[in-house]
Write a structure and sequence with these properties.
By secondary structure, this protein is mainly alpha-helical. 65% of the residues lie in helices and 3% in strands. Strands 1-2 form a two-stranded antiparallel ribbon. The longest helix is centred in the middle third of the chain and has 25 residues.
Length: 230
């Protein structure tokens, strides 16, 4: 494993820079689960820093759930899919700005499950004001001349409104993490909003089902929307 010296002139601390470089090696698969990291002394030499900076970097990796520090033994890479927190979600999908296809497919499948569940729940508990907000968003989604960028923003706003209606606090937190990644990497997903892929009529169908309290129809409409991305 190679290591380049870190820059002392940057605002981010040396520990920040070392932690980020090691994180990239772990998330990119260069360092695999169960593999031992080099010793603190070796890392300090590789990155031309003192051992206290390396020690702090390793503590950050441990806090992220990426490594296990064993006092008196080697620091080993953990299975990040089991141990990492949701704060690392964006990095799982975009390592070095290159989306990982298997993870991307998993994201879309999870999105489909969430959309379907949220729409089903909304059909059971949405009040008139909530239905009105969904209706407004669906009309804007079907407006002529809407650009793919506008459709992308509106589509996510529709999802967030469904999440809000459910009242599920943990799902609200999770949706926020997904939003930061999804809209932060919006160019990677813009193809999903071209005319031959995106069908805003499915949102209208979901709203109609929610208004009628038809749980099954609401779920099916949003699952169909997600399935088009797959």
């Amino acid at each position: 494993m190679r290591g380049a010296s870190v820059k002392t002139g940057e605002r981010r601390t040396l520990a920040d820079q070392i932690a980020d470089r090691l994180k990239e090696l772990i998330l990119g698969g260069t360092l695999r689960p169960g593999e031992a990291l080099p010793s603190e002394r070796s890392l300090a030499e590789q990155y031309a820093v003192n051992r206290s900076s390396v020690r702090e970097a390793l503590r950050r990796l441990e806090a992220w759930g990426l490594v296990e520090i064993r006092h008196g033994g080697a620091t080993r890479v953990r299975d990040l899919l089991v141990s990492a927190g949701v704060s690392l979600l964006p990095h799982l999908f975009a390592v070095g700005r290159e989306l990982q296809p298997a993870m991307l497919r998993d994201l879309h499948e999870l999105r489909g499950m969430l959309l379907g569940w949220c729409a089903e729940q909304a059909a059971g508990c949405a009040d008139a004001a909530s239905v009105a907000r969904l209706t407004e968003l669906s009309l804007r989604l079907e407006a002529k001349g809407a650009t793919p960028e506008e459709l992308q923003e509106l589509d996510y706003a529709f999802f967030e409104e469904l999440v809000r209606i459910t009242g599920n606090q943990l799902l609200t937190l999770f949706a926020g993490v997904v939003r930061d990644f999804y809209l932060g990497e919006r160019r990677q997903f813009i193809a999903l909003y071209q005319g031959d892929v995106f069908d805003a009529a499915l949102h209208r169908r979901a709203v109609d089902a929610i208004r009628r309290r038809d749980r099954d129809a609401a779920r099916q409409a949003m699952r169909a929307h997600a399935d088009r991305a797959l």
